[in-house]
Design goal:
By secondary structure, the chain is an alpha+beta fold. 46% of the residues lie in helices and 8% in strands. The protein has 14 helices and 7 strands. Strand 2 (123-128) and strand 3 form a beta hairpin. The longest helix has 18 residues, at 190-207. The relative contact order is 0.15.
């Protein structure tokens, strides 16, 4: 086999899939329709506006969570969790509150709205926590035309790690709440925390939403993950019965991080160019892999370099990931990635600030 990697021999077959999700498409459509009939009262006009501006389908629990917070705080639903948990509803929730209507410019790119430094295109922020750590939660999708596969959290001031918190916002907030209870001990606001916890559980039960950290569907996804990547949430690509779709990088995660460190911390440009040699070699291997339909190799390398966080990798990432997303038919992720690279910041996250 050409190229410097080898195909993963024991990956779960995903025959007949496109973007790793097609077999679920009809099920998801039925679930979304059923949820609309049974759950949220968010008008169709706002639902369509969210999906038009983000180019992403939203799960029904997103709208159900908005209804829940509206009942908690009718005048300020986005702040319904602020006093008790320090969480604020952001991102696409700004569209449900119609905050974006007060913005005169039509140039706003919602792909950058509350997009943190380490957020890959697969992650869409919907809840913002501590400003000190830039803790946030969001929906994680394996492909842009499918519903999210889980709710993830990240602390962008610390690193790129994405932790999984169940498959809906009720489970994510309850898991976050339980952690806060352990950290706080017997504080004076314990009664308010207990009350909110009871209300969240009652509503989730009424809606029939699972509250475990790892649902059955998430465990099934784990079997399709071809590699964890630096952020730990893993990536999924279609792999057929002959293991075509993904081949491993020639370097381990530990060795790749050493290579990245040598580049980022090089004393001068000459040293940096020399340190780039292993990356250039891997990019050649990626070309071979793409020619043989192992699109996951370039996808993995691009995600890892993005997660490392150094601006020295932006040019390479801009070559690797848009190509991988195009080959995998995940073009919207390519659009998000390119917009993010041109305006990647640890600050200025709220594109509607001052509105």
């Amino acid at each position: 086999m050409a190229g410097g990697g080898k195909r993963k021999q024991k990956s779960a077959p995903q025959v007949g899939q496109v973007n790793g999700q097609v077999k679920r498409a009809h099920v998801e459509e039925a679930e979304s329709k059923a949820g609309s009939e049974a759950g949220s009262g968010v008008p169709l006009r706002l639902r369509e506006e969210v999906e038009r501006l983000y180019k992403l389908r939203m799960p029904e629990d997103f709208y159900q969570f908005w209804d829940f917070c509206t009942r908690l705080s009718p005048d300020h639903p986005q702040d319904a969790l602020q006093d008790v948990l320090g969480l604020r509803l952001v991102g696409p929730f700004d569209i449900l509150s119609e905050k974006h209507k007060r913005l005169q410019s039509s140039q706003l790119n919602f792909h950058l709205h509350w997009r943190h430094f380490y957020d890959p295109p697969e992650l869409q922020t919907v809840l913002q926590g501590s400003a000190d750590t830039q803790h946030h939660m969001g929906y994680y999708r394996d492909c842009p035309d499918a519903l999210p596969v889980f709710v993830g959290e990240n602390e962008a001031r610390k690193d790129c790690t994405i932790n999984q918190l169940g498959d809906n916002l009720f489970s994510a907030v309850l898991l976050f709440l339980a952690r806060k209870k352990r950290e706080r001990g017997g504080r004076r606001d314990a009664e308010a925390v207990e009350r909110l916890e009871a209300e969240l559980k009652k509503e989730a039960e009424r809606l029939g939403l699972p509250l475990e950290r790892k649902t059955k569907a998430m465990k099934q996804r784990d079997r399709k993950v071809v590699t964890k990547t630096f952020h730990g949430a893993g990536i999924v690509v279609p792999v057929d019965k002959n293991d075509v779709g993904y081949r491993e990088l020639p370097e381990s995660d530990a060795d790749l991080k050493k290579i990245c460190r040598a580049i980022a911390e090089a004393e001068d440009d000459d040293s940096r160019m020399k340190a780039f040699a292993p990356i250039q070699e891997m990019m050649t291997f990626v070309q071979f892999a793409n020619d043989e339909c192992d699109y996951g190799m370039g996808y993995e390398l691009g995600v890892d370099l993005f997660c490392y966080g150094s601006h020295y990798f932006h040019k390479v990432i801009g070559q690797l990931l848009p190509m991988a997303y195009s080959l995998l038919k995940r073009g919207v992720f390519g659009e998000i990635l390119q917009a993010h690279l041109t305006s990647r910041s640890r600050d200025n996250l709220d594109q509607l600030a001052g509105v």
